[in-house]
Amino acid sequence: MYKMIIDTETANGLERPLPYDIGYAIFDDKTGRVVCSRSFVVAEIFLNKELMAGAYYAYKMPQYWEDIQNGKRVMKRFLNIRKILLDDLKKWNVTEVGAYNMQFDKRAVINDVRELTNYLRQLFPANINFFCIWNMACTSICQTDEYIQFIIDNNLLTEKGNIPTSAEVVYAYLQNDIHFTESHTGLEDVRIEKDIYFAVKLSEMEYDDTPCYNPWMKVRKYYKLWQERMAEGE
Question: 74: buried, middle or exposed (CB in 10 Å: 19+, 13-18, 0-12)?
Fold first, then answer.
């Protein structure tokens, strides 16, 4: 069985994010072998100076131009990207698509569809099922004493005192590399999200992969219980 993991980088704020970078990889769900990977720059968004000026990672634009020139990324119009993506899904018989924050990435690509076409409403075919790697991590790895201790030992609590569950932090934990920094570019982030996906599966822990909002709140609940246990131990 082949699955796809997708990641987007967006402009236009969080209320109506519009992807300018769409990266994805199709892989064998048993072996992890990647059979297809793509890194697209969405021409209509990326070439819109006004939109890109407000993008959170706008400072990366020179790197994108360099990557486009050396062939690392391909700039295409959105409809051409959509056609290639649909062809890849069909070729590899993919029926399951995931992302680290599936609710966000799904909404973002739908925004591109509706912003950049006059007649389409969805990007993915109706037969596609979606899974969320963030929820997978938050219902398994992130609810372990080892993960909590890693966060505490490395002073990684958020400003509000919560346990962080971003792909960057979870991957840093898995690699035991406190200095790991996420690329925040589509295809590169897909690669670490795939590693997190398999880490959860190989852990043999129970998990929930249903796309949902704010799965980090499940970890906050576990952290409160952890704090209570530590207090009782003292």
Answer: middle
Per-residue confidence (pLDDT) for residue 234, from 0 to 100 = 57
Tell me the residue type at 219: V
Count other Cβ atoms within 10 Å, centred on residue 86: 13
| C-alpha distance from residue 195 to each of 5, 67, 100, 178 (Å) | 11, 24, 11, 17
- Taking the chain, what is the end-to-end CA distance rounded to the nearest angstrom? 49
Whose tokens are 């020179």? That residue is 62
Chain segment 144-177, per-residue pLDDT in tens: 999 999 999 999 999 999 999 999 999 999 999 9
Name the percent of the chain lying above pLDDT 70.
100
CB 111 within 8 A of CB 16: yes
Q: CA of 75: how far to CAs of 34, 79, 85, 164, 170, in Å?
A: 22, 12, 14, 34, 31
pLDDT given at position 193: 98
Q: How many CA atoms lie within 13 A of 52 on its CB side?
A: 17
Measured distance CA(32)–CA(29) in Å, rounded: 6
pLDDT-derived band at 233 (thresholds 50, 70, 90) equals confident
Token pair for 200: 């959860």
Q: What is the mean pLDDT of residues 197-204?
A: 96
Mean of all residue pLDDT scores within the chain: 97
With H, G, I as helix, E, B as strand and everything else as coil, classify residue 137. Answer: helix
Strand-pairing partners, residue 39, are 23
